[in-house]
What does this fold into?
Amino acid sequence: MKNQKWLILIVALVMMAGTACALTWLRENQRLGKPGVKTTPIPGESLKLNINLPPQVLDFTSTNVPEPEVAVGYFPKDTSYTERFYSTPDGIKIQSTAILMGTDRTSIHRPEYCLPGQGWTIEQKQILDIPIQDNPPYTLKLARWNVIKTVQQSDGQTFKIAGLYVYWYVANNEETPDHDKMLAWLTLDLFRTGALQRWAYISYFAVCQPGQEDATFEVIKKLITAQVPHFQWPIKPK
It folds into this structure.
């Protein structure tokens, strides 16, 4: 029994030493990977970048949205944030947001944290494949969520509004709508190559009337297929 305790202690010490060596190696050899999104520099910034969301695609026009104060206080200082509101001629508005991490992976968060905190209930989740005509063409795998919210008017009466939330994560030649898989790939790439991949979180949000979710998604899909080649590097077959 005494020998077993000593053996466990020795194994624990060896594991601790190995972990310390691995962390030291990572600190000395870590480098930032190339973003999976197209960017332009921001004067005076070393890691913060503008993500190239296009001002206009097809019949969509857009307005730039400055980074909100809540995001400035929430995200690590080297997080890159770009947001635009796209509008169709018949008045449908789509919020398009790109968040790019710097040296801190906490820039990239789970969408489950944001929507319920704003009063939205997730009704349905789907994973869909969207063809992107780029060079080379590839299939974009994304998450689609149907959400709903109860709104109270000034007179006390309530009504429901629906929404569509679409998102995925992308790094250098890596893309997934799965947050856990993104973290696993980030860790694997870091240990395997010493590169901390700069993952980006791409999302779209639009409000609609209950029952109009599918029609609204088709508009978002139209925007994505036209917009993505402007700001995201193609995913090449491995």
Observations:
- Residues 1-32 form one domain.
- Residues 24 and 228 are 38 Å apart (CA to CA).
